[in-house]
Amino acid sequence: MDLRFTPDEIKFRDEVRAFFRTALPASIRRKMELGQRISKEDTVTWQRILNAKGWAVPSWSREWGGTDWGPVKTYIFKEEMQLAPAPDPLSFNVSMVGPVLIAFGTEAQKKHFLPRVANLDIWFCQGFSEPGAGSDLASLRTSAKRDGDHYVVNGQKIWTSRAHHADWMFCLVRTSTEGKQQSGISYLLIDTKTPGLTIRPIHTIDGEHHFNEVFFDNVRVPVENIVGEENKGWTYAKYLLGHERVGIARIGAAKHRIQRAKALAAHVFVGDTPLSETVRFREKVASIEVELKALEITQMRVVANAVHLPKGAADPTSSILKLKGTELQQATTEILMEVAGANAMIRQQEHLWGTATEPSIGPEWTATTAADYFYTRAASIYGGSNEIQKNVIAKRILEL
Amino acid sequence: MDFDFSDEQRMLKESVDQLITDRYTFEQRKQYMKEEAGYSRSQWEQYAEMGLLGLPFDEKYGGVSGGPVETMIVMEAFGRGLVLEPYLATVVLGGGLINLGGNDAQRAAILPQIADGSLLLAYAHSEAQSRYNLADVATTAKRDADGWILDGEKSFVAHGNCADKLVVSARISGDRSSRDGIALFLVDAKTPGVSRKSYETQDGQRAAQIKLSGVKVSSNDAIGDPGKALPLIERVADNALAAVAAEAVGAMAAAHDVTLEYLRARKQFGVAIGSFQVLQHRAVDILVSLEQARSMALYATMMVNDPDPAERSKAVSAATVQIRRSGKFIGQQVVQLHGGIGMTLEYKIGHYFKRLTAMESLLGDTDHHLAALARAGGLIEASA
Fold this sequence. Notes:
The complex is a heterodimer.
Chain A (H helix, E strand, L loop, with lengths): L6 H17 L2 H8 L6 H14 L16 H14 L7 H14 L2 H12 L5 E4 L15 E5 L2 E8 L10 E7 L10 E7 L5 E7 L5 E14 L3 E2 L5 H7 L11 H15 L3 E2 L2 E2 L4 H28 L11 H23 L8 H5 L15 H8 L9 H11 L4
Parallel strand pairs in A: 1-4
Antiparallel strand pairs in A: 2-3, 3-7, 4-5, 5-8, 6-7, 9-10
Helix pairs in contact in A: 1-4, 4-8, 5-6, 8-9, 8-10, 9-10, 10-12, 10-13
Chain B lengths: L6 H17 L2 H9 L6 H9 L18 H14 L5 H15 L2 H12 L5 E4 L15 E5 L2 E12 L6 E7 L10 E7 L5 E7 L5 E13 L3 E6 L2 H36 L1 E2 L2 E2 L4 H27 L5 H30 L10 H12 L5 H10 L9
């Protein structure tokens, strides 16, 4: 037993770190360091840099451009990417639709989509939630009725993250109302430019546009765009649950925020004392650091255990990572906002985007902190709310 | 990175777990508690036979040269069983001080006797006023013709009731809390001037207040360089905290298991109470807290031999904060989830709560270790 990285793993870490240092464009790095928003172009640029290096989709099978890194190296890679700090690759492409296509897609689908998904030539969004189907996702009602060589889709999706950037959507639709709810769902790929498909923005409490409503009015989707078998879509969607166990806790991102909060607190004064020297602040940060270290080791335990699991098998412990990880994402955005003090409440969206022509009111770094804090509340809601995660853990791990 | 046990470690774990399962049921433990010294003498002999009492010591002293991982394995099993025997006092603390700070003659004289089960030690360090400050020592050691004379009072001496020998800290110079000037002495408990007042602790273990009045010890009984003992005291305290972290994880895990069984078995309103979402979520909160604690017990175990004492203590304090918080949360919640039966002395769940609570104040509570960690700058370096 040895929790330290092996010399080989350290060599790999140094290689990854060196690559990120030189390959990440300075303008993107600066945005990331200031906590500013990353544009669609930034995400595409970074994804293509990674793809040129062969590191865009490390967890995919080699045949489709993946690596043979294994869990520990994949973990190191993700951690270093967050610490760089570099933008996250588009998870809908890399972690969701890609693996599902590799597992269940036809050869034609794989050949067409996978290279484009990896290079972000095609931007995917996820059409799962509906107004009446949130945590109870299986009750979704958006219907797809067979009409010759097409499915005709009618209904509505909601909370569709970044649909306004998307070229395609992977979508759960109802193809049968018989039997159990779960057994009448299919997994369709839909071109967002198809006539009858309308995308409307939903503005979130950070003042930004992340989410959308998507309406389907007789949208005709060619039958070859179904993934796998009709009415098996629920299984394909669930395939991803528990698979994303490496990096799910986003330790690197939380660590990076703590690093910043501590450094910035040295420039904020409480009377004559830097905030960073006050007992209250130090103990509060130390308290988060303890939880973060514990989660980091929990994450490494899950990663190490992955070696012993059959490839593709789910580890229910990853639900714990989601639960605690989102709490710590929230705690770390909260502490950064607290360091910013009243400055955080000045609404300066152009400084959030790094597009300002005027200097900020107050230090520039403070302009992003409230938006981050507000938006990060979503972390414990999306991808199965933390309450749903607890239901899953109670059932699958605790057998209650 | 590797979380797997070696074959030897796996065998050790299997045998200790088996021993606790077979010989440390809640009913058996009640009997052991009634023995004169408050623990089972035959269990102690069994530990000696299995090599557990010499676990951290070199082979030439009758030990097995085990490291922190081996100690973790044993302590976690002991935590599950709520073990009463003076393992921490004798092997980890007393034995640890001799092993890491004693000279060859002292090691040769003491360690084999610990390993074979014939000698019990206790560590007499804390005093009524010192709270959790390891440097706060008012007991004095004054030079005598051929040795030292000790005067003072020691508190909270775990298993001080039955120890054959005591390791006593005393000040030879400096102010009451100065880092310099502390010495350690090996004192036979029967030496004239040593008197002890034994008592039972809330968790069913034994301890003593120990008074030293003009106690004469020889120069050969000093452990290490008199006046320079604090680094050794801190190191052994960290070892003990790592060991107790594992013990706490064992107790938490067992309490969690017992509670899950109860949630599945207990029926109200015609269904198992574990089917109620509010209780399921509480049980998940316990699991998360337990897994976080388990991770930090591993962290303490890995860091406890770090060559840099500052890094070592920082890591151990961080681990202790998590362990203590999880212990408190889990202890309180498992009682709550059991309802009335959780309040009774005759049912086991309350005893895990009591043991976890007792561990909270051992070598510094949550606030103490959080403050220490914060003073040391925390675990993550500032960088903008």
